[in-house]
Amino acid sequence: MIRLDNVSKTYYLGDEQVHAVDSVSLEIKDKQFVSILGSSGSGKSTLMYLVGLLERPTAGKIILDGKDISKLSDDELSKIRNRSVGFVFQSFNLISKYTVLENILLPTKYAKSKLDFNPMDRALKLCKDFGIYERRNFFPNKISGGQQQRAAIARALILSPKIILADEPTGNLDSKTGDEILSILERLNKDFGVTVILVTHEKEIARKTKRQIYIRDGRVVQKYL
Amino acid sequence: MIEILDLARSAFADFKRSKMRSFLTALGITIGVFSVVLLISLGLGLKNYIEQQFESLGANLILIFPGSGFTGQGFGQGLIGGAKFDERDYATLKRVQDVDLISPLFMKSTFAEAEGEKAQITLMGLDIDSFKLMNVELVAGELLKKSDIDSRSKKIVIGYSLAENLFKEPEKGLGASIIIEKQRYKVVGVAKKKGDREADNGVFMSYKTTFSSLNSDKTFFAIYLGTKSEENVESVKKGAETALLKRYDKDDFTVSEQAELLGTFNQIFTVINSILIAIASISLIVGGIGIMNIMYATVTERTKEIGIRRAVGATERDILVQFLSESVILSSLGGILGLALAAGMVLIIRIFFPASMNLLSIIVALGISCVIGIFFGVFPARRAAKLPPIEAIRYE
Description:
Structural class of chain B: alpha+beta
Largest sheet of chain A: 6 strands, mixed
CATH superfamily of chain A: P-loop containing nucleotide triphosphate hydrolases
Structural class of chain A: alpha/beta
Strand order of the largest sheet of chain B: 2-3-8-5-7-6
Order of helices and strands of chain A: EEEHEEHEHHHEHEHEE
Order of helices and strands of chain B: HHEHHEEHEHEHEEHEHEHEHHHHH
Number of domains of chain A: 1
Largest sheet of chain B: 6 strands, mixed, barrel
CATH class of chain A: Alpha Beta
Largest interface: A-B, 26 and 25 residues
Number of strands of chain B: 10
CATH architecture of chain A: 3-Layer(aba) Sandwich
Helix content of chain A: 25-40%
CATH topology of chain A: Rossmann fold
Number of helices of chain B: 15
Strand content of chain A: 25-35%
Shape of chain B: elongated
Helix content of chain B: 55-70%
Radius of gyration of chain B: 34 Å
Oligomer: heterodimer
Number of strands of chain A: 10
Distance between the termini of chain B: 28 Å
């Protein structure tokens, strides 16, 4: 379970204060399929990165599984990011000098404790599951956007995280490929019980999730349970 | 902890992507290591060369002079006052432990005549060990024998320049007669040129022969001792001193050693060499700055990659180690290349000069290039590690 208590994130652009996230309190239960909906600049991505521990709040508390993570060290945050959170980005964010397979294996290189499975076996299985097995030794720029996004999802899943955070995962894809990616995320939630948090500015995409959180100017304006 | 192999692979993938840039960056270190290693090798070579020169004079040579003022510059002071060594001292010193070679030396500056030519000579009365102690070798004829010494024979060995002056062709002097202070002597050997004016214009004869008229008070200018092993030099010096103190005061004689002179030379050259190496080290620092510069550029170029790695769980330390290992690998490769080039150069130089490379210079070269990689890599690597993950991942 993820709980945010009065979480704020303030940036400084020169002298100007920007309240990207402003006193947000919300709760996302395990195994939920949630979307964070808002227009560009609404603070929805910042909110997602706060939940994904890539960002520290300026004020407020973030509680993950009953543990206040706002005070953890970089090492501890990195460990949780590594084992419990998987990111999927709009621009895929695969490392261009690595092959698909190497990209999928990347999180396992940073696992600080011994893994109870063979990383290579799991990576190959994920390749098969997502239909990119034939492309596993290709570099990212040699495969299609849909294939890149599926490789990115495989990378997010390799350490079996509890939470998947997807930031506009269909933004760079055509609608058909986008739908495929959404159904993969849906299946992850339904069949494997992964908490999926989907960040989008499109209402139609948000409608596919069971719960939507609307963000405007860094504040939650409406929420459904 | 990300494995070393992964780090190296990642580093090489990046070097491959910008081959020319990586090569030029490493080249700075290559040039630095090359010049430092080469200078160390030349310094070692010079040391070898000087030692060889001294060995040609006879290694482990101990010189005993009268007086206390011997400075190694001249013999003048030594001749004023002090002991007058004679056969009794010679016999005493022969009994000192570990003395393997010994000879008295009588020296006199006088004139020699032969075939109508007259020349100034350094007359030397000595024992047979002298030839070994002073490394006298012959171009013609033979050395004096023990029997020649004891029988006060009139046989002599003459220096190369003297033979040239008197007989035009040195070999022709063999068997000739030379008149010195109205006495006639027979040349049985002509020495090789030594480059030492006194020896090359020298006339070597039995010290006992000089006793008749040339050296009527039967004293010696010096006594030379030699020992086979360098380790014995100190004990022989002590032994000689103890032996002579029974007859003379401390100030009446000086026991000196060639190694002391050698040591002074070595000291001077070590200082010069160190200064040169220090100057060459500046190029290593310049090379290091080159690495730092490129690493900063690399960190900026790879900001996105850093963000991705952070997102999938890399700690600040992981990123630091990654970039640090890249700069160390780059700088070490440069160092290895510089070392190889220096080794090649040393092989060429060895044809005419005894330059040499030792294990120390190899360790120093590799160690220094590693240290430079760490020192100049740590700042860019720290910047990479401290990048806020969120900014890094949004960087385009």
